[in-house]
Amino acid sequence: QVQLVESGGGLVQPGGSLRLSCAASERTFTMGWFRQAPGKEREFVAAITRAATSTHYADSVKGRFTISRDNSKNTESLQMDNLKPEDTAVYYCAATAGYTGASVYSWNYNYWGQGTQVTVST
After folding, report:
1. Alpha-carbon distance 24 to 97, whole Å?
2. Which residues sit opposite 95 in a β-bridge?
3. End-to-end CA distance of the chain
4. E-assigned strands of the chain?
5. What is the pLDDT of residues 38-64, one digit of tens each?
6. Pick from 26, 7, 30: nearest CA to 110
7. Nearest-5° Cα angle at 72, 69 to 73
8. ∠ CA(62), CA(29), CA(34), 5° rounding?
9. For 67-92, what is each residue's pLDDT tens digit?
């Protein structure tokens, strides 16, 4: 069972930046980030394939967020710039057990972190 641990959440003002990190207990296939705001369903944010040859972003974060991974350390990161209040949510790291595409669908992900809160507010 792969364990995922997120870090890096916090409070930031609109227009600011945060970097989220996720440490996996072993090497994984596709890794991704999802988020869930209060009263809303969990939604896809970004994904990256095992060799980092392909990435995919939700339209709402394209051009502001950048996903990356370091397979030598079994980590992935999400650099979030120009943050907006609507980015406020709990962010979850996810990984697949064998699916190799940059999937936007949560059901393709087998492993999930505990989540880290990101709050964008003045």
Report:
1. 12
2. 31, 111
3. 40
4. 4-7, 10-12, 18-24, 31-36, 43-48, 55-57, 65-70, 75-80, 89-95, 111-112, 116-120
5. 999 999 999 999 999 999 999 999 999
6. 30
7. 70
8. 40
9. 999 999 999 999 999 999 999 999 99
Using DSSP's 3-state secondary structure scheme, residue 122 falls into coil
Contact 25, 75 (CB under 8 A): no
**Residue 61: which region, alpha, beta or left (left: phi > 0; alpha: psi -120 to 50)?**
alpha
> Which single residue is written with the structure tokens 């939700």?
58
What's the one-letter identity of residue 97?
A
The residue type at 115: G
Alpha-carbon distance 114 to 91, whole Å? Answer: 9
CA dihedral 95, 99, 101, 105 (to 10 degrees): -70
